[in-house]
Amino acid sequence: MQEYPEHVSIKYVDDGADAADYRIVQLAGKKDLVITQDYGLASLCLEKDCIVLHHKGFRYTKEKMDQMLEERHINAQARKAGLRTKGPKKFSEEQRDSFRIKLRKLLDDI
Questions:
Q1: CB atoms within 10 A of CB 46
Q2: For the whole model, what pTM was predicted?
Q3: Residue-wise burial string across 2-40, b where 16 or more C-beta atoms lie within 10 A, e elsewhere
Q4: Alpha-carbon torsion angle 1, 4, 7, 103, nearest 10
């Protein structure tokens, strides 16, 4: 059996689309830090006044979220219509280092 630090807990969720996202939203509280690349989850967490960070280090804001969700919707429609959309580039070591720096700064600030 795996041993975890006392402050770590494991949560199991039902199968199904977005089940994990909805559980995260349910558990998240004001000023909790959520790290995600999922715009839908980010939007829901922002509504709960969470601090939401993308894995590339930028902070999601309510002001930019509508535009991001609209772009996601347009790309989904294009894919359904058979068009190719550009996917994300491979996560680089430089991006990983940048994320570490930005996360550390954020944690120091809060």
A1: 18
A2: 0.79
A3: eeeeeeeeeeeeeeeeeebbeebbeebeeeeebebebbe
A4: -140
- Tokens linked to 34: 């959520």
How many angstroms separate the CA atoms of 85 and 82, rounded? 9
Distance CA 63, CA 57 (A): 17
Residue 105, CA atoms < 13 Å, CB-side half-sphere = 10
Q: For the chain, give every domain's residue range.
A: 19-109
pLDDT band at 1 (very low <50, low <70, confident <90, very high): low
Q: What band does 110 get if pLDDT is binned at 50, 70 and 90?
A: confident
Residue 6 has pLDDT above 90, yes or no: no
HSE, side-chain direction, 13 A CA sphere, residue 60: 29
H or E, element range at 21 = helix 19-27
Residue 90 CA from chain centroid, whole number: 17
* DSSP 3-state of 44: helix
